[in-house]
Design goal:
heterodimer, A: about 400 residues, alpha/beta, Rossmann fold, Dehydroquinate synthase-like, alpha domain, 6-stranded parallel beta sheet, B: about 170 residues, alpha+beta, Nonspecific Lipid-transfer Protein, Chain A, 5-stranded mixed beta sheet
Chain lengths: ~400, ~170
């Protein structure tokens, strides 16, 4: 165990049936009445936003405005626009309804408002912001993957420099995270599979990075167990509310875990694969996970062996000789990946995901400067990353 | 109640030693930038005028380095740094400066805050790792680094060069 660690999970969690209907009470408890809802156009179009509004439009709160123009990548410009709208409408709180991009945008808006800064660039860095003015903020995730509703990280695009900037602070975490199974019922099979594998990757990396600690470990293994029991079922039958709720919980738990112990090599390369070759984040994670785990295995033999109990289940764990457990863990992940591939078309190779060999150099260079690299337990060089990319191709 | 004299002495001793280590760290940066290909390839892409700092939280015990005309120079103060590592306490800075805590581990344990672009900090972290490998004996480097890098000179030659080069 580490000589020292820090851990925080500050969000209140509202999970299960009619969780959305309790949001007005939460805002009231936080002292806010006029709410600005942040979401995206797709969620507005498919009726997810309407489900939320139907659940929260009560006398207790006022929906002052809805901002639905949030793009795939949250950006500085969008944040500026939302801050302006928030002030013009005299809002008192933020409700984010969406995936990682919407929630990260909301974190950015809250950061600018609470720190009373004009320019978000002044807040760039790790743990440099302090409590500031309290802006009540509730997040409703509509995918079960990013875990952003529970993390201290916001990734925001600087479109001028085409760089994704990371903001890390304990004060980014929402006051409450609302997990309502209705929010993920319409997710297509492939997105369910991809985001579910992203969740698995968060749990595995948080359990193995150098910042791991007993608290994050507990969240990580619990998340892995839920994923083993529910991910394939969620892809097979997306209308099963119980399974959807379980995956939403796994995503949040893995989010709490990696928020406190961070993610490593898989994410460092995955972020770059996304940036260079435009591969969806979850797809990149799914493909790279077994290959990066093999690279890290000599440093993480013990940890991977322990994870077999959670990813393979009791029977598999008992039947596997001790010295083969780490390998078996990686094999179990490959089995899940292959099953998801046949059920949903989730890619298993970089070549299937649209990555070209000529992208490798740029991906490898970018990966080395990714913030996730520092907490990976094994040093990875440019050549190491190139080798992993070749294997995953 | 105020802090005890014993604590005051400890802080003073740690500050003095940290100041000495920061001097060698600066010299180590200068030397490896000239002699080590890995450090050179890390620093070369940094823009002209790039400044970074390591701050222990104790006044006067800090290191500010600027890349100027292709060289690294030490500054006494600079208002706006591109990157700054600010330790939350002198005790942890001291652990790092005395080879008992690596920079990656210090980051993982939230021992410092980082001002500036995190992506750029990764390059700085790799440089600090290499410079530490030159400044510390292998037995210490092995303990605090994920991987001990190949070096172009040994410990004695490193300190010899540092002391004779201006």
């Amino acid at each position: 165990m580490s000589n020292y660690y820090e851990f925080q999970n500050a969000s209140k969690i509202l999970s299960g049936n009619f969780a959305i209907e309790n949001i007005p009470h939460e805002f009231k408890a936080l002292g806010a009445k006029r709410i600005l809802i942040l979401t995206d156009e797709t969620l507005k179009k498919i009726g997810t936003l309407q489900t939320v509004i139907d659940g929260i439009d009560t006398k207790e709160i006022e929906i002052a405005g809805v901002f639905s123009k949030i793009p795939q990548d949250s950006s500085i410009e969008i944040i500026k626009e939302i801050v302006k709208q928030y002030k013009e409408l005299n809002c008192e709180a933020i409700l984010a309804v969406g995936g990682g991009s919407v929630i990260d945008t909301a974190k950015g808006v809250r950061m600018v408002l609470s720190q009373e800064k004009e320019d978000i660039m002044q807040l760039m860095g790790c743990e440099i912001i302090y409590y500031g003015k309290h802006i009540p903020f509730i997040a409703i995730p509509t995918t079960s993957g990013t875990g952003s509703e529970a993390t201290l990280v916001a990734v925001i695009l600087n479109s001028m420099q085409n760089v994704k900037m990371e903001f890390i602070s304990y004060f980014l975490v929402p006051d409450a995270a609302v997990l309502d199974p209705r929010m993920t019922l319409t997710l297509p099979k492939k997105i369910t599979a991809s985001t579910g594998m992203d969740t698995l990757c968060h749990a595995i990396e948080s359990y193995t990075c150098i910042q791991k600690n007993p608290m994050s470990d507990a969240y990580a293994v619990a998340a892995i167990e839920i994923i083993r029991e529910n991910l394939v079922l969620a892809v097979k039958n997306g209308k099963d509310k119980k399974v959807r709720n379980a995956m939403a919980n796994a995503s949040l738990m893995a989010g709490v875990a990696f928020s406190n112990s961070m993610v490593g090599l898989i994410h460092a390369i995955g972020h770059s694969v996304g940036a260079v070759s435009r591969v969806p984040h979850g797809d990149a994670m799914s493909i790279l996970m077994p290959h990066c785990m093999r690279f890290n295995k000599d440093k993480l033999e013990k940890e991977y062996a322990k994870l077999l109990l959670y990813i393979g289940g009791e029977e598999v764990y008992i039947q596997t000789p001790k010295e083969q457990r780490a390998n078996k863990t990686i094999m179990c992940i490959e089995e899940i990946l292959n099953e998801l591939n046949s059920l949903s078309g989730l890619p298993t190779k970089l070549s299937e995901a649209g990555v070209k060999r000529e992208d490798f150099e740029s991906i490898a260079k970018k990966s080395l400067n990714d913030g996730a690299m520092i907490v990976n337990p094994k040093q990875a060089s440019y050549d190491d990353v190139m080798e992993i990319l070749k294997q995953a191709f | 109640m105020k802090r005890s004299w014993k604590r005051k002495v400890i802080v003073k001793v740690k500050s003095v030693i940290s100041k000495i280590v920061l001097f060698f760290l600066y010299k180590g940066f200068k030397l490896t930038y000239r002699k080590d290909l890995s450090v050179k390839s890390e620093i070369e892409p940094w823009k002209e005028g790039f400044t970074f700092g390591i701050n222990t939280g104790i006044q006067g015990v800090n290191l500010i380095i600027k890349k100027e005309n292709g060289k690294l120079i030490r500054l006494k103060e600079e208002n706006k740094l591109d990157l700054e590592i600010v330790f939350k306490s002198i005790d942890v800075a001291f652990l790092m400066f005395t080879g008992r805590l690596g920079v990656s581990k210090a980051y993982a344990e939230h021992r410092f805050i980082l001002k500036g672009e995190i992506g750029k900090a990764m390059s700085l972290v790799r440089c600090i790792d290499i410079v530490e490998a030159y400044l510390f004996p292998k037995i210490i480097s092995k303990r605090i680094l994920k991987e001990v890098p190949n070096k172009s000179m040994g410990l004695i030659k490193t300190y010899g060069e540092i002391l004779i080069t201006r």
